[in-house]
Please model this.
Amino acid sequence: MTSTLSLLRKPLVEGDKTCADVTRDVCDPLDRTPTRLWWLGFGLSSTALLTGLIMVIDQVWTGIGTWGLNKTIGWSFDITNFVFWVGIGHAGTLISAILFLFRQRWRNSINRSAEAMTLFAVMCAALFPLIHMGRPWLAYWVVPYPNPRGPLWVNFRSPLLWDFFAISTYFTISATFWYIGLLPDLATLAARLPRGWRKTLYRGLSLGWDGSQRTWSHYESMYLLLAGLATPLVFSVHTIVSFDFATSILPGWHSTIFPPYFVCGAIFSGFAMVLTLLIIARKVMRLEAYITIEHIDAMCKITLLTSLIVGLAYATELFTSWYSVNPFERFSTVNRMRGPYWPFYWTMVFCNVFAPQALWFKRVRRTPWKVWVISILINVGMWLERWVIITVSLHRDFLPSSWRMYYPTYIEVGTLIGSFGLFFTCFFLFCRVLPVIAMSEVKSVLHYAKDAPGVEA
Amino acid sequence: MTHPHRFVVGVFESETKLLRAARLARAAGLPVHDAYTPYPVHGMDEALGLAPSPLPRFCLLFGAIGLTAALSFQYWVSVFDWPLNIGGKSYDASPALIPIAFELTVLIAGLGTVATFMRMRRLHPGRRPAMEGLGALDDRFLLTFREGPDGVGEGVVQRFLEEQGASRVVETGAGS
Model:
């Protein structure tokens, strides 16, 4: 039977795919040997990872004096990278949890990879405070455990400690959410495999999932609960990250707009990264029927909206610093725009506010390479935004005699490259060992906007 | 977990057929046991007469435990065990305790809900999936019936399933 197409809605999956097709399309690439393109990507990213690893060993061995920091500028590349990567993670949770609560069923074919991206991004993020500690082997000191030093507890009133709790909770809950979503698909994978260690492994990981309706019934309830928990969690995480700055008294940091501004920027940068990754992944893995132009279009709309909010936040910052009649606030704003680091500020404004305006046009939203270029610009712009907020605010504060310039060392640049290496290496490995598309969720929307559910072919 | 029962399994090719069969089977008083599907089929809970999941209540319980534990521990540390004077701020400045209390509420609620789910459905590594090899993890929709002491006479279920358009009717010993 040919499908009766709905006049109101577009199908979420292109072509007349059946459930068996979904299983085959998603699982088959895992059984084949990797393509040359995959080896190329994996080779590049693992080289970057190795570079980063060498840099990390060097700076841990020598000490963080290898960075370009000085007495005035105590935070720069490290915390910028931290905030940048945490922000990237937010899109994954937005797609998996918030769009789920809003019943946006198009999310079903992109949530798996977006959530994976969240986990890898949070891993990259956590790396930087860890290195910044200087003695990472003492990192467990941030955990309030009964210790022989008193016990001397951690300071529960410090935003940096809140950060530790926020990031570790975020990682744990995201990983749990992701793993729970994987259970049915791991079982599907195990069922297809011939006897052997892979079957045993996947079956063990699937916890003996068998698709029982009684299990599904509880599963759906649990999935909804986790989505409900992850939604405020994602807002809390970047809110707390912004507290690292907002609770200080430094002009340019001490601002009540920071929590919403940071959360929105995080979602904005995260969506840009999802676009960057998925536009490539759908081509390389031949998943165009599942990750369709409609998906790219929809993600572009969210990117555009968040870009407008970020633009509004920039404008609000300008207005309040003028309206505050506080000379330090005013100076900090003018210094961003006309100080020695002015090119970074204006590149940031161009990348985050002006370039995404092209997404108003349907023609741009539906041309993957154009979207890809814009997504790269946003990635750059959002990294610069964090750098401008952190470093440019620090380098000229209240006391002109302590004004300094900051220049990154090759160690810092190498570590940033290494974090990209870690991110992409993880993503490439993920594409090889786990189903990149949530099969059970896509199967449930195959009939969407086609014919009445389950009308027999 | 293996029951002493044997099962009669109807294999369907579409969720509509499965749903219809499940509804009619329950109405006819046949011993419906469960359904096995590649994705959650909507309306199946009602068709099988499943009670709503108690997980939301567990989630609330775990959340409350997390919140209470986090708040009281932080309060005890900052006010009683080792008060630190930081910038002259009061020891019991409770708004400062909120972020960590919130994070731990979410953490304990999330992990507790998942653990309860696994416990309830006895999911763990090494568990043998029921109804293996019948395609419920790929593209088939199974409706299972108990056979045995409390089941119905030979052939009744089989005939019912064939009438409902099951593509195959299988008997199997494994179930959960």
In short: The mean pLDDT of chain A is 90. The CA atoms of residues 239 and 251 of chain A lie 18 Å apart.
